Amino acid sequence: MIRHAERMDLVHSDIRGPLYQEALRMISSGIPVLKLNTGNPAAFGFTLPESVRGALLEGLDRAVAYSDSRGMPDVRGAILEYHRGKGLSHSTAEDIFIGNGVSEMAEMSVLAVMDPGDEMLVPCPNYSLWSNSLHLAGAVPVYYRCDEENRWMPDPEDIQAKITKRTKAILIINPNNPTGVLYDDETMKTILQIARENHLLVFADEIYDRLVMDGKVHHSAAYLAPDLPVITFNGLSKSHIICGFRCGWMILSDPNNELGEVRDALERLSSMRLCGNTLSQLVIPAALHDPESTQAMLVPGGRLYEQRKAVVEVIQKTPGMSVVPNDAAFYVFPKYDAERFHITSDKEFGMGVLKNKHVLIVPGSGFGYPTPDHFRIVMLPEAEELAKATQDIADYLLSLQ
Ligand SMILES: Cc1ncc(COP(=O)(O)O)c(C=O)c1O
Question: Which pTM value belongs to this model?
Fold first, then answer.
């Protein structure tokens, strides 16, 4: 047997893990399964925005060649304009790197910044991309608590307590996956003050910033703390329903000229893979100039708004279940009373839901959550189908008491 590299020991993906494999097996043997495991809107009938289709067709010939390894200059210009509009005043087009989704940018930035043994503060629960990227670099994710009793806001005391001599950076995912909440400015400023006092580089994953509901407004970390070094991550997978295009970017904010070496490392890493997908770069300016197609989903009568209502209503009327309604993104992260339902393993619970109700969920442990009493579902199917699936999960839960 050829053993895989040791660095792979800690890398995991429960979103596409054993439960997912079982779901695929069921589907191939003719059993329909509703897959609520990935935030992949196109799989639920969300269609390509016309602005994106037009830009793609019009620009096709430009996509044939490799581009600059950081990305096409005019496209970086459009990204800069977007982030300037959000108050990132210190960045230039030279600070922008476009790649194959935020996923590639996360891995690249972690490799560029983190030495083996360096620590990054990472939210718990968390989206596993970031902990996996840290493991690949030999660096260490140190998890800080997000407090369900306080609408899943990060707990500043816990963050402070986890800082060591090796802490080099802090990751803020806002709006968050898996909780779907938007952090309030006060909490953000408190966390950023901790970063300031401890000279931490801020990694701000803001891929859901255009998917905020209820009239709330997202403020970028780099806007709230213009004096700090920040790497902001964003992309079109979610807001423009084009996950498969693999279209994401990062933008450095470097008000004190501290990121010269990091920028140089990122340039070398970007050159290694020559460039990001040029087809997907082409659509960025059109997409960023077309906020309407996203906005329409988020207001009363819009799909995401109504679907959230459907799922939250079922959970709130089920005894033994609760949820902090999400402000943004596609996710809800409900809680159940594990003792009451005799659940000691959330993975077993997930398997039970899959086998009995043919619905695929992701157990909370897939996001590093320490107790077996949470799961995540994506609120992407039409409201009626989603309400039924949520009711099926609730019925299975109730059958266990
Ligand atoms: C918080 C967060 N960051 C990054 C990503 C990856 O996005 P991309 O499709 O741009 O690689 C996701 C995908 O679900 C996510 O939830």
Answer: 0.95
